[in-house]
Amino acid sequence: MDDRPQRKVKVNLQNLYREEMYTDMRTAALRQLTPVKPNGEIDKTRKFLFVGQTNIMSPQGPLPVQFPIDAKNLQEAAEKFPDVMEQFLAKLAEEIKDAQRQEQSRIIVPEGSLADPKIILK
C-alpha cells in the first residue's frame, strides 16, 4: 500500500485559455492564448495573451527562448515581435553578465586550522 499523500490536482476553470500557434516557418513563432469560459466560449472580459518564440544560436547549439508580447491582436503581436525579442535578448544578456560577475566576485576563504582545512565559498 502506498503511504504517500495523494496530490489533488484541480483545474482553475476561471483561468482557461485556448492555445493557437502561428509561425512564419523561418524564425518567428507566436502563441495566441484566447481566454475561454468553462463551456469553451470566448471570455470577452479577459485579454488575449501572446507569446513570442524563437531559437538563438549559442556555442552549445540552438537555444529556445520565449517572451510575452503585449498586443491586442495577432497582427500587432507579429509587428512587435522583432523589437520585443531584441529587448528580451538584451535583458537576458545583462542578467547572464550579472550572474557571471557575482560568480567571479565570490571569495574563497579557508576556515579552521591547517590540520583540518575546509574551504567555504562566500
Describe the structure concisely:
The protein has 122 residues and is α+β, with helices and mostly antiparallel strands. The chain has 1 helix and 6 strands, in the order ββββαββ. It has one domain (16-121).
Report what the structure shows.
The model has no long low-confidence stretch (mean pLDDT 89). The protein is built from 1 helix and 6 strands. The protein has one domain (16-121). The strands form 2 sheets. The chain has a 4-stranded antiparallel beta sheet with strand order 1-2-3-4. Strands 5-6 form a two-stranded antiparallel ribbon. The two termini are 45 Å apart. It has one helix at 74-104, and strands at residues 16-23, 29-36, 49-58, 61-69, 108-111, 118-121. The chain is α+β, with helices and mostly antiparallel strands and 122 residues long. 25% of the residues lie in helices and 35% in strands.
